[in-house]
Amino acid sequence: MAVLALLAVTLPARADAVRLRQAAEAMRRGDARSAVVLLEREVSRMRLAPGERDPETLGVMADLADAYRAIGRLGDALETMQRVLELRLQELEPAHPDTLGSLNAVARLLALHGRYAEAIDTAQRGLALARQAHGERSAASADAMQTLAALLAGSGRIGEALALEEKVLEVLREVRFPQHPDTLAAMGNLASTYRDLGRHELALPLEQEVLEVLRRTQGEHRPMTMTAMANLAGTYAELGRHHEATALLERVLRGRSAESGAEHPDTLAALLNLAGNYRAVGRAADAAPLARRALDVASTRLGERHPIAIAALGAVASLERAGGRGQEAERLALRRLALADEVHGADHPSTLGAVLELARAHAGVGRFHEAAALTQRFVDGTERLRSAPGLGAENRRTLFQELVHGYRQLAYFNTRAVEAETAFRLTELSKARTLLDAMASQRAARSGVLPPAERTALDEAHRRIAAQDTLVAQAATAEARRQAETRRNEVVRELEALQAALKTRHPKYAQLGEVKILAPRDLRGVIPANAVAVSYLVDGDWVGAFVVDPLGASDFVDLGIIHQLADKVALVRRAVGETGSLEKALADAGRKAWRMPYGEVGLADPQGATPEGSHAVSGLGDLTAHLGDRLLRPIAHHLRGRAQWVVSPDGPLAHLPLDLLAFDGTEQRAVAAAAIHYTQSLSVYALSRAMQAQYAVLTGRRSLLAMGNPEYLPADDTSAQRVGAARPSKEPRGPSRLSDLDRLWPPLPGTEAEVKAVAALFPGSASVHLGAQATEQRLNELQASGQLRNFRYLLISAHGYVSQHQPALSSVVLGLRRKTPAADGYVTASEWLTYDLRSDLMVLSACDTALGQVVGGEGVMGLPYALFVAGNVNTLLTLWPVVDDATAVFVTAFFTKLRQGASAAEALARTKREFTRHQRYADPRYWAPFVLIGAG
Questions:
Q1: Contact predicate 165/188, CB 8 Å
Q2: SS3 for 469-487, per residue?
Q3: pLDDT above 60 for 789
Q4: What is the pLDDT of residue 847?
Q5: In the chain, where the domains are located
Q6: Assessment of whether the complete model's pTM goes beyond 0.70
Q7: pLDDT over 50 at 375, yes or no
Q8: CA gap 102, 79 in Å, rounded
């Protein structure tokens, strides 16, 4: 008995299985407080026997740390987990799975305290240990990479996070089977990062695949399946597919409530997600109780410092503001920002959202000075996110598109606070950002400060990225696109490393590559003496305009709300360029136009009742007069007497030819008042003017390179309908490859006469390439020999293809009969980026070349963007399909005036005015589509 008693005393006591089961069940149903009580008792007992260093004790302590985290006791969670890590490092190998798990857990808890630098350092230690012990391509390394990726993303280093997540998925698909839960989780994490970047076309197929597999392998109501549903719903919502998002989120909320209980953090997150979607579709009355319930429960059960409680504060604050309860919204938004600063840190994306919501709340109660005071903080954080390394131009564009709405709102708040200079800067910051970056980078590369070998290395990296852009855009499947995207991102990172090294070795190269966002005073001497600059700012239907004179003096004019602005612009384009009348354009769009008693033109369902006191509008003149009254008349006092208007449009205004609009309250069109040309932003305009001045002193340039009448393929029975005398650019539905378009393009014999007529204006100084010589191969030969950079004017008379879905594929279509693998006849926007131009003017005598996807923070993407990056100063493009014979006459008349010494802007204005009086071509269809973008 004595021996048995001695054995009973010395045998270590094991964990109480019943108590641990009870704690696990409490955690599952969301009752983390009960779990904490049970686990604290168990840890206290086990520290006595078998002791704190026992592996089982450490496991229970880790569970306790997780329970502390769940109820918002983040300090206790971190202290407990740090003790677990300390003991495991003493008792186990540094790369033991339990030790690595503890390192990851501590890193995540440090991040919840906003201590991202320490968190990232801890996660990097874990990754280094995992790689050293288990190798790069191991599950342990993948886990560590995933932890580090989440922390990098949370600290705003989203490009580095993306690189790790792409690697994680690659590794797990190799070391796990494709449908393993870890692999599916990695797919979901990568999709979430794509969604954060605004890359919904990449996120959506991944999320759909994950959900399909989880439904099949785990069932509809398992936690991972519901997480996948919520993620997919988030992407649906951002794509505007709110009906599908609502159906999924309602299912998630029912499942979370049944599986985990009404107070579980996952259930509260589901409440918030559904509330947000209800609000997006105008169901604020349904959204409000969900958001308030989430806030009440989260604050009570989890503590106000819990991330879900902070998010719920933001949701309720936004609903209070929308409901007109401004003071309460302001109070909640102030508290949310204070907590976000404390928990997430100043640079976390969620904290930036809290800054913007507080600015909106201040503005909602008329405190515009307080709203404006938050501008610099929001801009600083957003610019850090945007400039994060490893993103590349495409990801930088889409990320900024998600954020630029905040710049526009803050610009408006600053105008109300009479902070016009700050508002102007915000306007410039919200336009053409990657174009400005790329133009500055090209200026530095072509400055001559780099040794030839290093310049060649830069050019080769850009060519590789352009090739990957094309592969991404033409990928036939979602997985092929993702893989091409991953390869492009690898090349982007190589280019960034090369550029960083060159900036270190060549300070002048670094200096020339710096981007300058201009203030109005910086435009003194940039804007010509007889000109005025107008920079529009559009946020939804609200429009403002900054007007800057040649001395750098500026004025802001609030143009107010122009209802249905984008729809009205689209109607003008269709009525003039496609249908021939507003009546037909309205019928095609299924709309009717009404002029209201107070002068506004509204668009409505043709079957609806006539608004009282209104009359139907069928003539284009009424619509252009209305737009002129709203866009030009309020600033007419600045425009009168100015021979040239430099216009920086915004949003849908990029597709509106201002020449057509009534000016100054009369029937006179703006085309008669001034030479109008466009620029993506006034900062870009200044850079274009500097390029123009540099080119003016170049010697040895020839006058003209002209291509026309390319050899196209004959139509076959499978080709789309072809357009006879026009130069079509219609985009077929879902072409997977440009070669699918090969037989869409009818011959353009009229372009040969056009090219010859223009070339005759420059005898002995023109290089003409017609028919079999009008090819991409010939263009590439001129580029390779260095001749392409030695032309002042470039004229390409051909078909144009504009892709609204894949701007990188927008192309000038040259000869298709003698294609090669390196030259398929489609000179895409991606390929134009790699050309070296020193041209004062590029004329793309093709259809719709000024169109393209309008990207928030960028403007029109596609050919206009690419040609400026390539080094071209001015580009003449078209806003709708042009007619072959009329275009030949127009282009010849335009070049005649250039030859006589007119500037590009003057030549265009004079040609348009001639056409308004032309016997055959006076209709705006023939002259209004031509727009000049650049220095003028």
A1: no
A2: HHHHHHCCCHHHHHHHHHH
A3: yes
A4: 55
A5: 177-260, 434-512, 520-678, 700-931
A6: yes
A7: yes
A8: 12
